[in-house]
Amino acid sequence: MSDSLDALFNRKPPTWFERFAASPQRFVAETLYQLRPNHRMRTRPLSMTISSKQLHVVCLSDSHNHEIQNVPDGDILIHAGDLTNRGTVPEVQAAIDWLDALPHKYKIVIAGNHELCLDSSYQERDTAAYYSPPDSLNWKSLLYLNDSSAVISIPGKSRPVKVYGNPWTPKQGNWAFQYLRSEDFWKDKIPADVDILVTHGPPRHYLDNHAGCISLLQDIWRVRPKLHVFGHIHSARGYHVLDFTPIQKKYEILSDGRGGVWEMIVLAWSLVVAHLLSLAYIREGQHETILINAAMVKGLKNDSVHDDVATATMAL
């Protein structure tokens, strides 16, 4: 396995100087983007007060053999992959047993790049015969998704909820469920009517330490799910809201290294106009996607976990 992968996922967030030195244009674009209207109001803590009329989703990822304590209650529990360290069948089954013991009625799980035993293509690449068909495991109360969907009807909610899960991430090292970063892997892959998207990796530019997937981001622009749960980049854990505005699009273009001084001026002027006109351009529940990087482990060796578990609320 590649040491560089662990270094990427577990590194400390870069300082402002390191960010500026790496890419001045991206640093300025990110700084301006943080000034958008309602940013502070919309950057909520990972744990939030909930209403009984809303759907309450408990979000986990990257537990890596840890059995997380004090998991809050909710309508749906989601684990976005990397249940294990080495990806063996006993490790996966132990993680299943832990999640099954939690009181949530609906539990949805996808694999991550560490779940070697669940990726049939991994056996073809490596002589170690890790692969074990998913149906050889006892998933108990868990719904396991792999490029598949589940529709859940929750008593008291206005309509069923559609969840789509997919574990694949851009290739880094010799791990499971990986595609070439140059590949447009996600093009038209996410169902158009999905409410909750679960992937192991993040989209480009958001909670990703600049290691996310541009193809995934492009398909999120197409579908605009209400909630996207992921992990993979441990040190980028957090919460963000995509509002799908021209300001967001300009930020993404500049962060990708495209555009230049003129685009930077346009972004700055757009923010000035938005503030002067008091534009509440992020409208609650309208065409916005909540992003949660729910990675639980911390430390260079994944030897400790965060105290809080991410939750999200969404209106149906």
Automatic annotation (TrEMBL):
- Residue ranges of every copy of the Calcineurin-like phosphoesterase domain listed in the record: 69-235
- CDD domains per the UniProt record, alphabetical: MPP_239FB
Tell me which UniProt keywords the record has, alphabetically: Lyase
Under Gene Ontology molecular function, one entry of this record is: hydrolase activity
Q: Where are the transmembrane segments?
A: none
Designated name of the protein: Rhamnogalacturonate lyase
